[in-house]
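Look over this entry.
=====
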Amino acid sequence: MKLRKKHRLRKKEVEELSKILNETFGKEIFTGNEIIDQADAEGNAVLSINNEILGLIINDKPFLTLKGLLKYAPEKKYVTVDKGAVKFVCNGADIMSPGVVDADPSIKKNELVWVRDENHKKPLAVGVALMNAEEMVKGKKGKAVLSVHYIGDKIWRM
């Protein structure tokens, strides 16, 4: 996949992006001094940090890609799924509430979240929360997270 419309973010944009990501994940992800390029990758806005695709923009909000999540290991905005859901999530399926065993209590509907497995706590997907954390964990039916980036997709393979 080729990156199109690549442009370097200005220092002020990098500082703002860093502030948002650091607040989202509750830890320092970026210092604000990184050189970051934003590009279009077949309809997805991605963020390249030192030539690694570590971030993406979803619904005008920045978030980490799976590779970014692996690199920075945040402990906020996670949704944990049971081992029975892992195969489906890794193939791009949306996350169903019955498969959710835990979630960051701060998650609100329409926020960006990352999905991890219950055994190793490794990232499997990034998506949009379709319900609050409490509803996800206690829910007996329905979609909890709309999957937008998962292991093996175009962004992962970049």
